[in-house]
Design goal:
The complex is a heterodimer of chains A (about 170) and B (about 100).
Chain A (H helix, E strand, L loop, with lengths): L1 E2 L17 H8 L5 E2 L17 E6 L3 E3 L17 E4 L7 E3 L7 H5 L7 H9 L5 E2 L2 E4 L7 H18 L4 E5 L2
Chain B lengths: L2 H9 L3 H12 L4 H16 L10 H10 L2 H18 L10
The chains are: A alpha/beta (about 170), B mainly alpha (about 100).
Chain lengths: ~170, ~100
């Protein structure tokens, strides 16, 4: 989990939507709060959105049915990710994630994993298209350095390999 | 808790910090809920054995003999959550 104490290039440090959350997290999970100062600045968009191939990176734990479930029980976390075909239908997907409420997502997966909305935006030409896969993992990871060194790097490489121009990143 | 926090606790032999972490894990951030969840798992493990049914003890012994400690420890967490789920009382927000 990360927090910053001063505004950064991406607006970090602004008022949190739930200002008490960080303090609560640190009280309940001592040592889990880390501070990031070496942030990567936003890259300016090099071409119109309608020509950009978009990928989606999500901590929702959404994955294709039949793929190996995320490890929600491991005490230190799961540092793997799943490739979710961006052409998937909602009924081909399922959620393996223990740490956020999933009741609404089971009624409409788009509230946490807006795959149909993104498919619509691509079909309407608002965005240039979608990468072949989206990328998901779970946010329960107690080793931030390992997360950054392995999982984040692995996903970044996979995103690059699929020729994404822009990435939509959404925490669950 | 970060992994570093847990490793420091392990190095210092601070079992209270370690078990507190396990309780928080099972209780989704509530130590009291975690205690109840751990107890619930044990109760659910006890109930199927009360009538002394036949069990696959060969499988158990083979597993314990042939699998490494980390795999067995991982299995231990899986079994705990499995039996908690079998209780029918699921306090967690999400899904296994």
């Amino acid at each position: 989990m990360t927090a910053t104490s001063e505004p950064g290039p991406m607006g970090e440090g602004r008022q949190q939507l739930r200002p008490g959350l960080w303090a609560t997290v640190n009280e309940r999970y001592p040592g889990s709060m880390i501070t990031k100062r070496d942030l990567v600045p936003l890259a300016p968009l090099g071409k119109p959105l309608s020509e950009c191939r978009l990928t989606f990176v999500s901590t929702s734990g959404v994955q294709a049915k039949g793929s190996v479930p995320f490890d929600t029980v491991h005490p230190v976390g799961d540092y793997s990710f799943r490739r979710v075909p961006s052409a998937s239908r909602v009924d081909e997907l399922e959620i393996h994630q223990l740490k956020y409420p999933t009741a609404d997502a089971h009624r409409d997966l788009n509230v946490i994993f807006p795959i149909e909305r993104l498919q619509e935006l691509a079909a309407e030409g608002v965005i240039g298209g979608l990468t072949e896969h989206f990328f998901t993992f779970i946010g329960y990871n107690m080793d931030p350095e390992r997360l950054e060194r392995t999982l984040a790097e692995d996903i970044a490489a996979a995103v690059s390999d699929e020729g994404a121009d822009i990435a939509l990143a959404a925490p669950a | 808790m970060s992994l570093q926090y847990l490793k420091e606790a392990a190095a210092a032999g601070d079992g209270e910090k370690l078990i507190r972490y396990v309780r928080l894990h099972f209780g989704d951030g509530s130590e009291d809920a975690g205690r109840r969840e751990i107890d619930k798992g044990w109760i659910q493990a006890l109930l199927p054995l009360l009538d002394v049914p036949s069990t696959d003890r060969a499988f158990i012994l083979e597993t314990l003999r042939t699998r490494d400690t980390a795999t067995l420890a991982h299995l231990y967490f899986h079994l705990h959550f499995h039996f908690v789920q079998r209780s029918g009382e699921w306090i967690h927000d999400g899904d296994l």
